[in-house]
Amino acid sequence: MNDWASYQLQDFIPFTADIYVRLLERMGETFWPLHLLTLALGAATLVLALSHRTRLACLLPAPLWAFVAIAFFIQRYAELNWAGGYVGYAFISQAVLLVLIALTEFGLNKAPRRSSPPVIIGTAITLFGLIILPLMAPLTGGSWYQAEVFGIHADPTAITTLGLALILLRGLALWAAAIIPALWVLISALTLQVLHATGAAASGAVASGAAVPGAVALFTVLAFALLGVVWKSFESQSAR
Amino acid sequence: MNHRITRRQSLKLIGATLAAMMLPSVPLLASTGGLRQKLPPIGMGTWRTFNVGSDPTLLDARTEVVKTFFEHGGGLIDSSPMYGSAPDVMGYTLQQLGTPESLFSAEKVWSPAGGSAREQVAELKDRWNVEHFDLVQVHNLTDWREHLAALQEMKAKGTIRHVGITTSHGRRHSEVEQIMTSEDIDFVQLTYNITNREAEDRLLPLAAERGIGVIANRPYDGGRLIKNLKRRGESLPEWAQAECGCSTWADFLLKFIVSHPAITCAIPATTQVEHMHENMRAGSDPMPSADARQRMAAYIESL
């Protein structure tokens, strides 16, 4: 038997669905009511982005990326998966990148057109990350503490930032700022898919039940974000 | 760590010992100091299920699972430095429950974890809060020559009691066979279940011939096997109760494994107390005969 052919995705996910759900819940329990502040920051960022105060809009999510890197990945997720620490460093890199783009204004679209299709896609993705994603856990039988919130949890932070990048950035800066959030959304979607496939336990069944719409939602967001990034790249090229 | 056991724990452990005496034990051919050991046929795995980090809620929940395991007279618990926080979680549960006589602690050395075999074993002992390991295995054959030599030295000095190697998913069976033939090992851990029976061809007969204990991992094929049977609403065949005392799918799948004469124990993993009860009941007599085992395999193939 070929060794590598025998490996499956689930061989790389070292925890069960209930453990992952508890990880999300612990973040909620530990940091409530910080959620209100981070959500307000997220909403303010979207308003600033659409009202052409793009430099500040690019800067605001940066500390939240650093917070998620430390509080979620390095302090908690890394306990379950050695790779979590490295993802944490990637999130810190994203925070630094956002600060650099804001400071240098490299690739910053100072006056995004609201009617532009990539900006519409970006706005929809941002709203999904800020409003819909937090509601998914409570709507699929989970507790409110399991609600994944921008600036507290990794998925909504990555998704919202993908949306904001589509509004705020263009060219190389857009691709650079989209890579880490997109990769995390991909990893997270695959994780949820595996957790659903292997979630046999009774309490895990509830958790893995929520994993199905979660994975579908993340894959859908990723597809639209990719469409938006490619569209914007063509738009920028044809505008030259 | 405080290893003192309270009166309540003592009573529970006496109960566990009595339960263990009522379970059929599979003779373990490896021996230490001339004493022939016995292991209950159902052990416990910790891959994925015991990697709960520092979550107090889940730490307590897993403690209940281990408590149930010991109440049924459970013996072998298998972990690895590859399993994230699972060794620490075992340490937590043993701190809460005490360390019963029936515990047969099985760990592994794994090159990517870093450090020599000696350093890894020392660190893992601290994480488990145990004074010694009953078994240390070379995980997935990584750098097995170096690790096995170091483990043999540790066994000779009495630091660990038994040595072994592991593989899973049917990987590298020819190399496993070579090691079983050429090296003096006490245990081999491999994947063996009703839908993965490749080990029956060469490895299980070789283990029986050389007196090597066999630990069967992935008894439910990573959970898929039992989950699919339950999800599809498949019912047990009518003859299952009469021929092998099976009243649940856990009985059917686990009894098939542990009734193979070369198998020492199977190590299902679970997060649920209820499933631990089910798993442990599967270790009770009656066990299927060779003919019944063939019938069981044919039945699963027919589904």
UniProtKB/TrEMBL annotation, chain A:
Organism annotation = marine sediment metagenome
Under what name is this protein listed? MFS transporter permease
Q: Where are the transmembrane segments?
A: 30-49, 56-74, 86-107, 119-137, 149-169, 174-195, 207-231
Keywords attached to this Swiss-Prot or TrEMBL record, sorted alphabetically, are: Membrane, Transmembrane, Transmembrane helix
Automatic annotation (TrEMBL), chain B:
Q: Where is the NADP-dependent oxidoreductase domain?
A: 41-291
Q: Which Gene3D superfamilies match?
A: NADP-dependent oxidoreductase domain
One Pfam family from the UniProt entry?
Answer: Aldo_ket_red
Q: This protein is called what? A: NADP-dependent oxidoreductase domain-containing protein
Protein species of origin: marine sediment metagenome
